[in-house]
Every structure is written in C-alpha cells, then in structure tokens.
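QA checklist item 7 of 12: single-chain prediction sanity check.
[x] sequence parsed
[x] length recorded as 368
[x] structure emitted
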Amino acid sequence: MSQRDYYEVLGVPRGADPDEIKKAYRKLAMRYHPDQNQGDKSAEEAFKEVNEAYEVLSDPDRRGRYDRFGHVGVGRGAAGGPSPPMDFTNVGDIFEGIFEGIFGVSPRRKGDAGRDLRYDLEITFQEAAFGCEKVIKIPRPVPCGSCRGTGARTGTSPERCEACRGRGEVRFQQGFFTMSRPCRACGGTGSVVKVPCPECSGQGRRVKEEELEVSIPPGVEPGGIRTVKGAGELLRPGGVPGDLHIYLSVKQHDLFTRQGNDVHCTIPISFSQAALGAMVDVPTLEGKVTMRLPEGTQPGRIFRLKGKGIPYLGSSGRGDQIVTIQLEVPEKLTARQRELLREFAQEAGEEVHPQRRGFLDKLKQIFD
C-alpha cells in the first residue's frame, strides 16, 4: 500500500514554513492522541502517520531529501515500513533506493545493520513543561560475549555459505536488470553456523537490559518522539547499530490542562469575593501567586497570567496561564447567613442577580 504525501498528512502546502508545520502537527497530534481516542484503531494509525510526517518535515535535511526523492529519499519504502535513513551520495545510490522501494530488495548487503527499537515513556505534566532527566532500562539485543557475535561455539568458526558462496546475497534477473536479495540460507551474513554457541543457541546475540540516561527538553508535547542515535539493536561487533525511538506520553494533572503552550485552570470563588472583589491565591506550575479580583467579577470571567504557561520547545519564551472563574455556591447555610441573604434580596428588590433583571426587562419590551 502506497504512503500518503507527508504534506497532505499534515494538511500544509509544500512551501509551508517550520512554524506552520509545527502548528499543524500539534493540532493533529492532539486530535488523534491515543489518550483521547482509546480503543480507536483508526485514530491510532492516524497518530502514527502524523508523527512520521512531522519527524521528516521538521528536519531541514530530511525534508530536503523528501522534496527531491519522495519517501525513498528518507528511507521509507512503498509498503510504508520504516528503515534506516539513506544518504544518496551518487546516482547509483538513488537507483538502489528506488529499486528497494518498488521491489522490496536492494543490491546492498545490509546484514550488519541493526533494527531501530521503541520505548514508551510516561512523564508528569511538570516534567513535560520544564524538562527532566530520566534513567530508563532498555532490553537491548547485543552480541553474545561468549562467541563474540559469531554464533559459533568457542573453538569453532562459522563456515562459508554454499548457497551464495559467501556473498550474503543471491542475484536474479528482473526484466533488463540484474537484481539481488539477501540469501535465505545464511540470512545475508555469507556464513552458516554448524556448531552453535550454547550461550546464545547460535543466534550470536543475547538480550541485555541496559540503563540509559535520557534528557527530555522543556516544552515537549504528548506524542512527541525523542530519538537516541545508535542506541538500538546491534547485530554484531563492528556492525551499524539501530536507533532508539522514545515515544512520550504525559500524565493528566489534577488542576491543569494544556492547549498548545498555554496552561488552563478553573478557580472557585465565593459570592462575596465575586461581588466585593478580593485577593485570591492561584496555583501555577511554579507555586501559588496572588491575583486581584475586581468588584463585580462574573462567573466564567477569564484572567490571563502572562508567562506562567509551558516553555516553547527549543526556543525562549513561555505561554500563559488562563484562569477561569467559577462561582461556588454554598450547599449549607446557617440561620444568620440565610437572614443576611434575605435582607440582601429585599434590598435588591428580590432581584438577586442583575442579569435576571436585564432578562425580565427584555421580556417586557418584547410583549408590551
């Protein structure tokens, strides 16, 4: 199945600047994030597609290769599966990439290239806002120490594969072209193990849990991906290791929600505070601040605390904190409180809320 154009995935024109691309990515990532669409497989696939498109178009070098060569230029085959990015340094490399995308084979021998690994990391709201250092444990395939990655018992060696005569690939004719594919008999290594290593059962690899320190920068968003180069699978000593892709998710906060780089929260106040005005404590990501409420503050009114939001990823500055006022009505009143409220209602002509007076006046104008 062919892949969609990355610009089409993000809904931006090909000449879009980095800010347009980032804005489109954030909007789509929030729409399709797994936390918002639990159990929705189509949203999960769309989320992966959006992340893949942004990963390429946000990188100037990879975006340039994509603009020139399409998906092949960034190491994506026609079937949509990821593969290590290719560096096209000459015309021959370009044709190799095209053939691999169309036929699923390549003249190059890639038996030494390790696969990329994925790790899902959940961080807190504050950690996403201000960044953090995390130590994670990665179960990573590494060369067996006993056979040094050969797969052969100590004292023996792998023997040349007779099916491919040690080349690691077999060639065949495809129309006018001579193509090649990895040898199935030896898996593209060019050799076979006759006496396997007992420690790794001839695989040449063992799974080892390794600790890795990961730096999470301030301002990362849910669904963001951090890539650690060379921290993926290593097939054998001297081979090319894959990368580690860390997929970030962010825990929900009890008080705050995030929209872009702004932080939103709701603050309950009493009727007397709303009517008379007051100084109230407002929680922020960095502790409490005091905010002044003017007299006659209405329920639903919004206040903006400048620079109290999420730092911008990779640049200076921060978003704001948006505070929405909620009127808290007491559920139980003392006798004295009821008496005072009745006096207030009488003083106001039984019009407790000024908005109700305006509503009744409008009704009178309509029906008179």
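[x] summary fact logged: The first strand starts at residue 117 and ends at 123.
[ ] second reviewer sign-off
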